[in-house]
Amino acid sequence: MKEQNWEPKIIAFVCNWCTYTGADLAGTSRLKYPTNVKLIRVMCSGGIDPVFILKAFERGADGILVSGCHPNDCHYNAGNFHARRRWTFFHELLDYLGIDKNRLQFSWVSASEGKKFVDVVSKVVNDVKAMGPFKGYEELNNEFMTEFPDVSGVDESMILKEKEGEAV
Amino acid sequence: MKIGVFICHCGENIGRTVDCPRVAKACEWLPGVDVSLDYKYMCSDPGQNMIKDEIRKRKLDAIVVGSCSPHMHEKTFRKAAVDAGINPFLVEIANLREHCSWVHDDIDSSTDKAIDLVRMAVEKVKRNVPLTTIEVPVTKRTLVIGGGIAGIQAALDVANAGYEVVLVEKEPSIGGHMSQLSETFPTLDCSQCILTPRMVEVYQHPRIKLMTYSEVEKVEGFIGNFTVTIRKKARHIDEDKCTGCGLCITKCPTKKKAFNSFEEDLAYRPAVYVPFPQAVPNIPVIDETICMYYKNGKCGMCVKVCGREAIDFHQQDKIVTEEIGAIIVATGYKLYKIDKKPDDSPIKGYGEYGYGKYKDVVDGLQFERIASASGPTSGEFKRPSDGKEPKKVVFIQCVGSRDESKGFSYCSKICCMYTAKHAMLYKHKVHDGEAYVFYMDIRSGGKMYDEFVRRAIEEDGVKYIRGRVSRIYEKDGKYIVRGEDTIAGMPVEIDADMVVLATAMIAQQDASELAQTIGIPYDKYGFYNEAHPKLRPIESTTGGVFLAGACQSPKDIPESVAMASAAAAKALVLFGSDKLEREPVVAYVNESLCAGCFYCKKVCPYGAVEVKEVKDRNGVVYKEVAYVNTGLCQGCGTCTATCPSKSVELAGFNNEEIFAQIAAL
Amino acid sequence: MEELRKHAKELLENKTVAAILGYVEVDPKRTRPAVITKPEDASKLVFNEYCLNNLAVYLTKARIKNIAKQNGAVMKLGIVAKPCDIHSVIALIQESQLKREDIHIIGMNCHGVVKDFGMEFSGETLASKCVPCESHKPLYHDIVLGEEKQTPSVSDEVLAKIQAIEKMTYEERFEYFKNEFDKCIKCYACRAACPLCYCQRCITDKTIPRWIESSPHSRGNFSWNVVRAFHLSGRCIGCGECERACPMDIPLSLLNRKMAETAKEAYAYVSGRSLETPTLVGSYDVKDSDELFM
Questions:
Q1: What mean pLDDT is predicted for residues B105-128?
Q2: Full domain range(s) for residue B466
Q3: Are residues C137 and C179 in the same domain?
Q4: Within chain A, where are the H helices?
Q5: DSSP character for B31?
Q6: Helix (H) or strand (E) holding C34
Q7: What is the pLDDT of residues C210-220, one digit of tens each?
Q8: What gap in Å lies between CA B392 and CA B497, rounded to an integer?
Q9: Does one domain contain both C169 and C210?
């Protein structure tokens, strides 16, 4: 039952100037994409820490997108160049450790590429759907929560969300 | 902490696909939320008043507004919060319109997503720290890079408004490409005649510091506070002593060693030269690469004839630094030279058009020189190979433009017009001559522009052929131009005496390097990017740097001038206040934890990270740590992600805030 | 050996250095690190195939630094260093932890060390870091001592293991590393032994926010080992001290070596080899590969 209704949880870390604005444009253009993706805005793709990715997996993300300005179009000139090196390493490392390359994807989406944003997001959602839930990390997470119920990492608000059904 | 959540319906924009009352109700349960309401239009006066009232009534500490993109109304709601007495940085926007209601159809799932988005914002706002805006002073001086018509116009506008201008031009004279043109469309008035008064005005203006034969080497700082390093190349002539009599030029024995680039290589120039007679400033330059003195230490003819002792063979490049508040980039364009390129060249050439191989196949600017009264032929139509008057001239448009395979996919915009002008100028002088134009479409939008093209066709009898040329080859002293007339649907062959190619306008060779020096983005062609294609076409994305003219995209003279004046206006807007306010989104270092590896310093695009010595109580330095100069920091946060020990954080987007958002998912 | 002792003695007598970090003998097949401050102790120094430790790790430690601070001035520190240890020193200089002029490098020609104390030196017992080693002579030094000898050549087992892992499926790899990391007891010996782990407070010790769960549990272990490997990628010089220090025998060099190979393949960069080239992390090239990005 759970398997059937499973919808992937996808987090996108996007830069304020290009991809976030590109996603705004997708909205303004009334393009459609799946609801699975939630955006976290940072100022520059150069400011996205790889640990954010681990944290997101720890919080049950099934797929992650990291997106910024195209090379040479960075609002801060060089942030995305530094990001590019960082992600090349990190992606290689995660791949080596057995995290499917498609669980963590990268893109450059400029402020004028609303359509590209939709395409990228749809691709990530489809890829992750094809792979199914992230079993490996789920195991880690479940184990952690059974052994450390007090610090389960579940926010109170997650529990309260259950109540919300009654409330509405 | 007491948080207020306000959900906007945005009329039907959000309300249609997100059940706003349900979102508001669900958010009441979130820990820390004191009140959660929804309303038709939060950004309206009643909506804002509702927010203000709730803040005051319930003594809220922070608010979350579920509405449109923060790029739209974040300022509005921050202002409302400030009015009600809370810090503007304790306001978070959940983007329920652009990122939710507009991009999803299903009410249930988009409402669920909306709740998630608000929850993320609530978790973030809980960790937000009150911040105060940073004030920085403004240096009211402008740097204009490029002394073509755009740069000249911008410099004059700013200077006439009462502010100082530094105008930097890399060539020995200002004037740019416009000074090379013979006549200008659509009025056919002489280009030099309208340009030179402006050039002189620049030269004589008390508030314009003109630096020709100079290049910008380094730009540091930020809006209102740039420090610019300029290299003043050695002219080998003392500018203060030279009167511009030109005796050195006429006496220089090295006459034919270098092409005259102003004449588009159709003529030679001596080792000591001014680019053209009306040059501003009228001070020659000695070309070290061909001057005999630098070859063998002999000659020195110019020294002998110069009565003012202005020649200085030992003059060195000078480095000048200027304090600048606004930068106007007006570096212009160059023409695409289409001669055959090596195989590994990123841009290809057109082997089949014979440019570079046949002397009488010329490009647009070369034709301008041939047509110009001050040009190498003194305005008489003589072809470069044998000096004879061409009786049949073929003009080919869109050479390199709108051509992805061999050139560039964009339209160069001005070629339709200048080709019509060229054909017309030719017909006006060579009455028995024939002019043919091969075109793809005629794009002549502009005041009196289409009329101008019609005049060329109808009054001057220029023959327009719609189609592309496939090949040009030489046969019996003629150039056989083979193409296709797509309207008649048959091949055409013209035995021309001369061929003029309207080659594409492309970015300057060093456009990308200059962009990196200044710190502005550019597109894949090397043209500089504007901040917004419609609403901010003059600004670059870097604060305080404005664009003018063809460095942004192909433009004709009136457009360049209009853009230059607009850029000047933008600079003047900046000078309208003595201090600038900027968002306090800057990095700060936890000095007690910093180990001083200075990776932050290495990655900082603005050089905002400095080394700071930490001393013990005896005044002995015991460690060096990073220190962020908040004046220079632009808040990208690249340092925060690079720091291995997380000793540097970005205000407004600190790691705790981001972790809270991740955790809320 | 005698020239090493003689040189060390001179350095200390002339007050060229405040102290010398070197090795002293415990038994014929075991050495230990020592800080020599008195000229008469210089005769205790040894150098042989049993000098396993990378002494560069001590250079950033406050206690060692304090020895160099005498009468308000900073004196030089001498270090007896194998060529690979010198790579660490170079990396530390590049990362502003040391100044070249504050260090007197006594470079030792090296033909490899043993895997562990007590072993007879031979091809079979050659430490895995020595197998692919390409610099048997010190790259940067103030003096070079010791004789040049041929390193036994043996097959590169670590690389073979990495290639074997790369052939596994994602699930198998995840399972493999999860099981390896599960052994971790969070003693942070790997961190303490690493010359490049010099942060004043490690990311894992930060609590607001909590970056890495510090409990010795699968999830926290996984994160810790990923982040440790990531923070060293492009920086690790491959001295292998972390793996040697690990009481639970987690094959950390499988990670470090893999990332070093990535740096070599993607950016033709090997850490700690040159003071002139900018560090890989902290620099960029506009022509870097864009393959990863849609």
A1: 92
A2: 335-506
A3: no
A4: 2-5, 19-28, 50-58, 79-96, 114-131, 135-147, 156-167
A5: T
A6: strand C30-36
A7: 888 888 788 88
A8: 5
A9: yes
Residue where one domain finishes, among candidates C95, C112, C145: C145
pLDDT of A2 above 60: no
Examine residue A124 and state whether it is found in any structural domain, yes or no: yes
Residues B321 and B340 in one domain: no
The CATH number of residue A88's host domain is 3.40.50
Domain tally, chain A: 1
Number of domain units in chain C: 2
Statement: residue B632 has pLDDT above 90: no
- Is residue C273, in this structure, part of any structural domain at all? no
For A11, which of B106, B112, B665 is closest by C-beta distance?
A: B665
| pLDDT in the model for residue A3 | 55
Contact criterion met (CB < 8 Å) for A84 and C259: no
Cα B439 from chain centroid (whole Å): 29
| Separation between Cα atoms, residue C3 and residue B334, nearest integer Å | 68
d(CA C294, CA C279) in angstroms, rounded, equals: 27
Does C135 lie in the same domain as C6? yes
Give the distance from residue A98's alpha carbon to the nearest chain C alpha carbon, in angstroms: 4
User: In this structure, are B480 and B497 located in the same domain?
Assistant: yes
| ipTM score of complex | 0.91
| Cα nearest neighbour of C169 on chain A | A98
Instruction: Take residue A135 and report the two structure tokens written for it.
Output: 């079993």
Is the bond preceding B281 in cis, omega lying within 30 degrees of 0? yes
H or E element that contains B75: helix B70-83
- The distance between the two most distant Cα atoms of chain A, rounded to a whole number of Å, is 51
Nearest to C32 by CA among C5, C58, C68: C58
Same domain, C127 and C210: no
3-state secondary structure of B527: coil
> Same structural domain for residues B157 and B82?
no
Does any domain span residue A152?
no
Nearest-Cα residue of chain A relative to residue C164: A96
For residues C77 and C199, membership in a common domain is answered with no
How far is residue C184's CA from residue C1's CA, in Å, rounded to a whole number?
A: 39
Give the gap in angstroms from C-alpha A98 to the nearest C-alpha of chain B: 22
Q: Structure pTM?
A: 0.77
Spell out which residues of chain C touch residue B595, defining contact as CB-CB under 8 Å: 97, 198-200
In DSSP terms, B283 is beta-bridged to none
Shared-domain flag, residues C57 and C122: yes
In sequence order, the β-bridge partners of residue B4 are B35, B63
**pLDDT tens, position by position, B17-63:** 999 999 999 898 888 899 999 999 999 999 999 999 999 999 999 99
Mean pLDDT of chain B: 91
By C-alpha distance, the chain B residue nearest C211 is B659
Dump pLDDT digits (tens) for C34-90: 999 999 999 999 998 899 999 999 998 888 888 888 777 788 999 999 999 999 999
Residue with structure tokens 């945005």?
B10
Query: Which of C201, C280, C283 is best to mutate for the B interface (most B CBs within 10 A)?
Result: C201
Residue B394 shares a structural domain with residue B464: yes
Structural domains in chain B (count): 5
Tokens of C288: 């870097």
Alpha-helical regions (H) of B399-520: 415-429, 449-458, 511-518
